[in-house]
Amino acid sequence: MSEALLKLEGVHTHIGAYHILHGVDLVVPKGELTMLLGRNGAGKTTTLRTIMGLWHASQGRITLAGQDITARQTHEIATSGVAYVPESMGIFSDLSVRENMLLAARGARTLDDIDTTRLEWIFGLFPAMKKFWNHPAGKLSGGQKQMLAVSRAIVEPRQLLLIDEPSKGLAPAIIQNMIAAFRELKAAQTTILLVEQNFNFAKQLGDTVAVMDDGRVVHSGSMAELAADESLQSKLLGLSLGAHQ
Q1: In degrees, to the nearest 5, what angle opens at C-alpha 123 toward C-alphas 120 and 124?
Q2: 215: left (phi over 0), alpha (psi -120 to 50) or beta
Q3: What is the reported pTM?
Q4: Which residues form the ABC transporter domain (predicted)?
Q5: CA 204, CA 179: separation in Å to the nearest integer?
Q6: Looking at 112, 139, 157, which one is the last position of a domain?
Q7: pLDDT exceeds cutoff 80 at 238
Q8: 176, 207: one domain
């Protein structure tokens, strides 16, 4: 396993009166794609939001590249090279694709400030972004909105991407496009922590996997090993995921 870029040690998160995370231990190796799996309500989204500082850990420690970020504010975590793509995608519907991208490029005041080579690379991953460059983001299809959400996250180099269910509700052809894009990101040594329910998506992309249940990580290891072991899938997730393509 590669060295850890992100580590969670005994992380607890409370939201109001609710105790959601109960001592999460998680290691995300540098340059790899880690899948975060689990039943609905297991705490996966809360884990991403806690890492991003949108909710603060009430106990435990979160480190990024050896630096303690547990108490940092969201904007501080973002400026340290972390991008978050929520399940809701978080795009600005009234703005154009171009304007959404410019807002996400923190170091750019105008389009001329965005790295042209990187922008062309993104267009290669998601050709629809170039095609609909001047269209309102709210007019895009669901799959195109997801492409825009990921494109915004990678418009500048990031050391870590946090992505929540990128294939949810997408057509199979769009899912394959997304898989190809994430493979390119992996090839570029981008570190990714990805929540996903589509097991076929997960097994094609994941290097490592962590499975959550009731606010804890109950299994971690190789994605390939979990994909090959239907009895373990059933034990951890209550069904044979191999049958759910």
Answers
A1: 90
A2: left
A3: 0.92
A4: 6-239
A5: 8
A6: 157
A7: no
A8: yes
Q: Are residues 114 and 133 in the same domain?
A: yes
Instruction: Tell me: do 51 and 162 sit in the same domain.
Output: yes
Of 142, 157, 172, the last residue of a domain is 157
How many Cβ atoms sit within 10 Å of the Cβ of residue 232?
16
| Domain total in the chain | 2
pLDDT tens per residue across span 103-139:
888 777 777 778 889 999 999 999 999 999 999 999 9
Contact at 8 Å (CB) between 47 and 240? no
Amino acid at 122: I
Q: Identify the CA nearest to 178 among candidates 148, 207, 156.
A: 148
The values of phi and psi at residue 57, to 5°, are: -65, 135
Question: pLDDT, tens digit, for every residue of 42-86?
Answer: 999 999 999 999 999 999 999 999 999 999 999 999 999 999 999
Q: Is the pLDDT of residue 239 over 70?
A: no
Place of tokens 């069904």: 239
Name the residue among 54, 53, 214 with its Cα closest to residue 62: 53
Q: Specify the 3-state DSSP secondary structure of 40.
A: coil
**Helix boundaries (H) for the chain:** 44-51, 74-79, 97-104, 116-125, 127-131, 142-153, 172-187, 199-205, 223-227, 230-237
Q: Give me the domain span that covers residue 110.
A: 85-157
- On whether both 69 and 189 belong to a single domain, the answer is yes
